[in-house]
Design a protein that fits this description.
alpha/beta; globular; 228 residues; Rossmann fold; 5 strands; 7 helices
Length: 228
């Protein structure tokens, strides 16, 4: 895909399995990809090093890491170390939900997209194998897309509407893995664990690890995750 001269797109890249596949899909679709990651006060900072690896290996034109302090508010096991990461499935919205995270992330991606004159923003949210997060639902994405076209100069004056693209929204974890493998994603370079150690090794017990492990089993392909 070297030398892609297509339209620009901002792609949210966390360093995990889903966002890596999302970036690969955007590249395969002919987009010039501008990868955006966030240091938001998360306990699992190894994902940022994974995001750098993913962006580089999948040919992102640029990769930026923005620092925002969602840990200042807390309210999530991912931003408040006094709240334990659960190691079994729980009903309802889990404590690993970070309040307003995708709203904040998409808002900042929208700002960069305006500067780049990009009309497409990719985010790897999924409504099938997900952890119960309200900001991963199709209804949320549709509402944010409407907001994006109401609240921006690009949306009001531009000849094209801004699109929030969610290519994984209806896929199972196994389907995401199969799609990523077909597009050359190195899943060994990704980190999904909610409490990975500094070397990126996964705990193997949290909900994210469970969904990832079950996905590889269902996809009938070896799991390259490094567990501690």
């Amino acid at each position: 895909m070297a030398g892609v001269a297509g339209p620009a797109a901002v792609v949210l890249v966390s360093g995990g399995l889903d966002s890596a596949t999302c970036l690969a899909i955007a590249r395969a679709g002919g987009f010039r990809c501008f990868a955006l990651s966030f240091a938001y006060g998360q306990r699992h900072e190894a994902e940022l090093r994974a995001a750098e690896r993913v962006a580089r290996s999948l040919g992102a034109e640029q990769h930026r890491v923005m620092s925002i302090d969602l840990a200042a508010f807390g309210g999530s096991a991912l931003t408040d170390r006094t709240i334990a990461v659960p190691e079994s499935a729980t009903p309802g919205i889990p404590v690993t939900y970070v309040p307003a995270r995708n709203t904040v992330f998409l808002s900042l991606a929208l700002a960069w997209a305006e500067v780049l004159q990009a009309r497409d923003i990719f985010i790897g949210v999924n409504a099938v194998d997900y952890s119960g997060y309200p900001d991963c639902r199709p209804e949320f994405i549709a509402a944010f897309e409407r907001l994006a076209n109401l609240a921006t100069r690009a949306g009001v004056e531009g000849s094209e509407q801004i699109r929030i693209r969610t290519p994984l929204i209806d896929l199972s974890k196994a389907d995401i893995i199969r799609r990523g493998l077909a597009l050359g994603v190195d899943f060994a370079a990704t980190v999904s664990c909610y409490q990975a150690d500094d070397d990126g090794r996964a705990c193997g017990r949290c909900d994210s690890c469970r969904l990832r492990r079950e996905g590889f089993v269902a996809a009938k392909t070896p799991d390259p995750t490094r567990y501690r």
